Write the structure tokens for this entry.
Amino acid sequence: MSGAAPIAGAPAAGGDAPQATPGGLRVEGLSKEFGGIHAVQDLSFAIGEGKVHSIIGPNGAGKTTLLNLLTGVYVPSAGRIALAGCDLTGRPAHEFAAAGIGRTFQNLQIFFNMSALENVMTGRHLRERSGLLATLLRTPRLARAERDCRARALELLEFVGLGAHGRSAADAMPYGALKRLEIARALAGDPRILLLDEPAAGLNPTESQEIAALIRRLAQAGTTVVLVEHNMRLVMGVSDHILVLDYGRKLAEGSAEAVRNDPRVIEAYLGAAAGAEHADA
């Protein structure tokens, strides 16, 4: 990220908002329009390091659009995005990834013709620097890099609870395991911040608990997690901070307890019945 311009300081966050940290993510006045439709409108927030930050809201609230902005898939109509003080606004997606922002997707992006280990190894391509000549000549340096890549991939499979699946064909693995495999592959790029787009979608309660435990381990290991998820029991159980969107705007933000009891959130999203259910979560 050489040559990236430092972003100007933002106004101090409110009482429930996390303070930006030197290696954290900062968003200022972020907006995105599609043909006159405001998918995201004037969002400002900070994401501190080593915490779990969730983004919730009803369908159409702008959650996935926001993730696409935070990973360079979309260019914002207005506003700025900075990681560790470096302005990433308008840069291509590969530069967001190189700066340390990784993600998973709602729909599995697995190579089903590869093994679990090979899938994770593909996630190391951003960190590999082998040139064409080294590849053609199979130099000792390249061989060493391949060994290191394989070792790191095995470590990540163990970390996500798939240590026994290294040689398993991806197309033979259960759906819940594939969700964790995609997280392992995203981690292979050594992200500072990992964006998880509905990692518990389609999972049974036991598998959802495994994802929740994995998210906690990620934060404990120092990886910042940004979670978009409809499973409110999971969100309330793992989140240090929650941002609530409604029609592309910030409706509320704060701790899980503050958001759970916010009348605006209950009315617009959780609903009275859901609020009662999540109070027991």
In short: Confidence is low (pLDDT under 50) at residues 1-15, 131-136, 272-281. Residues 72 and 93 are 4 Å apart (CA to CA).
